[in-house]
Amino acid sequence: MSSQKILVVDDDKSIIKIVRAYLEQAGFTVLAAYNGTSAMETMRSEKPDLLILDLMLPDRDGWDITRSIRNDKRLATTPIIMLTARVDDSDKIVGLELGADDYVTKPFNPREIVARVRAQLRRRQFEQAEQIEILEVGLLTLDLGSRTLTLNGNLIELTPTEFNLLKIFMESPGHTFGREELLDKALGYGYEGFGRTLDTHMRNLRKKIENDRENLTHIQTVYSIGYRLVEG
Predict the structure, then answer these.
(1) What pLDDT score does 28 carry?
(2) pLDDT at position 44, please?
(3) Peptide bond connecting 58 to the previous residue in cis, omega within 30 degrees of 0
(4) What are the backbone dihedrals phi and psi of residue 210, each rounded to the nearest 5 degrees, phi first?
(5) Spatial distance between the Cα atoms of 99 and 77, rounded to a whole number of angstroms
(6) Helices 160-171, 195-209: inter-axial angle, 10-degree rounding
């Protein structure tokens, strides 16, 4: 699974270096910005999964950036962890009221930052899982309510097993699923079929979603492991 992107914004390069090291060790991709202007540019261009934001920056403070993010429909749901040397409770309250999700005071334990990042991303994942009715990857659109698939606007007929398999892939594009995991999730833990049965379902599903030359989404076989859905 492609690693989640974390944007760290702080004018102190040593802080970013430490946070980056611990987050990358935990498997995250880390982006960096040293002022508010570049932070907003990176937010709009990269759309990171989470923002770690210093309150005091050379050009714009963290409160102003938080306000801008929460007023931007494309970025509004991004979790924000505010990072600051200020310890006044009123500062913390203002940040949270403006839309920050968490607040960490310097000096801090880098492991605590990693733990809080993971906690915020888990919470966001659960919230999204409760809200999502439509899954979109490339030109594929899967409607979970009506259990229908469209490819570039054209309705594609799927069997129940094909639908379940595609739902699994589209919920985690880029993630490699093992064969046994796919059998369990798509067909149920009580299913006693063989791997060849899965191969048949996968072959049929591929024919249906990869027959459009304009569609750049396809299912890859990962040798000796399983399958994954990719774009491009």
Answers:
(1) 96
(2) 95
(3) no
(4) -120, 15
(5) 10
(6) 80
Contact 139, 215 (CB under 8 A): yes
With a CB cutoff of 8 Å and minimum separation 6, the contacts of 12 are 54
CA 22 to chain centroid, in Å, comes to 19
Question: Which residue did the predictor score with more confidence, 46 or 147?
Answer: 46
Q: Which residues contact 47 (CB under 8 A, 6 or more apart)?
A: 5, 74, 75, 78
On the 0-12 / 13-18 / 19+ scale of CB atoms within 10 A, 1 is exposed
CB–CB of 31/5 below 8 Å? yes
Fill in the amino acid letter for 15. I
For 94: left if phi > 0, alpha if psi spans -120 to 50, otherwise beta; the answer is alpha
Candidates 28, 120, 24; CA nearest to 79 is 120
Q: Which of 71, 77, 69, 76 is nearest to 33 (CA)?
A: 69
